[in-house]
Amino acid sequence: MAIEAGRGPARQHRLDVRAVDRRERDHLAGRADQAEAVEPSPAIDRKPTLYLGRRGGDETAGRQVEVDDRKDAGLIGGHGAHGTAFQITVEYPRDRSDTPRRDKSMVMATVLDAREVPLSLLSRRQFELVRLSAVRQLKSRYRGTSLGILWSFANPLLTTALYTAIFGTAFKAYYGGSTSRYVFSAFVGVTVIAFFLQATTEALGSVVANGGLLNKIALDAETFPYAAIAANAFQQSVTSFPVLLILAAVLTHDPIRVALVPVVLAGIVALSAGFALALAALFVFFRDLAYLWSIFGFVFWITSPVFYPAALVPVAVRPYLAVNPVALGIGSLRDVTLGRGPIDFGLIVSFLLVAAGCAAVGHALFRALRRDFMDLL
Fold this sequence. Notes:
alpha+beta; 5-stranded antiparallel beta sheet; 14 helices; 5 strands; disordered N terminus
C-alpha cells in the first residue's frame, strides 16, 4: 500500500486501493495486523474524513465517508475480486503530535464497494483504461510498418480477390450473372468473419497475458478483452466499415438501409464482445482452449456464407447452419448493403437479439468466473 504524505493545515495521506467483494473482507481483516497505516494521535477528538475521487482529480468530488471503526469499512465493500482502483484522501485534523501508529480500522477503510461509489466514476475510469490499452495494442501491432493500420484493410481485399478469381465465375449466376455483385458480397462476408475471428482470438489470451499486471495493480480484468475488441473495431472503423457505408449508399439508394448499416455493425461488435469475454474467462482455467478455438474458428468460417451463396447449401443442412450467429450477421449486413426490395427486418431484429444475448451471457460468465482468476494467474 503506497502512502504519500500531504501538505496543508491538515495531514493528508493518499492511498491507491482496490475494491474487493464481501468474500475477501474476512481475508483482509485477518491480515490487518500485517498492514501498515497511519492514524492521528490520541489527542485528536474528531473522526478522520475519507474522500473518494478520480486519480489526478479533485479528491472532494466523490462520496464523503467518515471512518469510525472496522465496521465502517463494510459500508463501502464489494465490487469483485479485481475491482476498480480508486484514489482516496484521508484527512485528519491537526493534532499536537506527529507520531504515527498502527490502526487496523484504517487498513479496513481501504476496502471499497463499487455499489456505493458513483457509477460515473467507475465508467470513466473503465473507459479510460480500455482506451489506453487499445491504443497500446495498436501501436505495438503496427510499430515500424510502412502502412500502419491500413494493413488491416489488406486482408479482406486480398481474400476477396482470391475468392473472386476462384469462385466468381462459378457463382455469379446466383448474383444475377454479375461478378461485381459477387465481389461485393464476398467482401461483406470476409469483413465480418475476419473481424470476429481476429477480435475474439486476441481477446482469448488477453487476461492471461496480463496476469502479471493484474497481480501488481488493481485493475478490472475485463479491461483487456474489451481493449482487444475496441482495438479491432477502431481499425475496421477507419478501413473496411466506411467502405460498407459507401456500398450501401451507392448500390441501394435507400437511406433506411444506409442508416441501418451502423446498427448491424454495432450488433457484430456486441456479438464479438460476448464471445471474447467468455473465451477470455474460460482460457484462464482451460489453456487448451486456444487450440480448440482455432478449430471452431474454421468451422465458423466454413459454415458462414462468406465465399458461397446461401442458396447453394442443401435444404437438409440449412437448419444446422442457422445456429451460426456469425452467418446471421453476414446475412443482415448483406441485406442493408446490397439488398434490393423490401428490407428483411425479421432477419435484422433476430440477429440483434442474438448479439445482445451473446454479449449478456459473455459478460455474466466473465463476472462469475473472475473471482478465481488470481489463483491461476
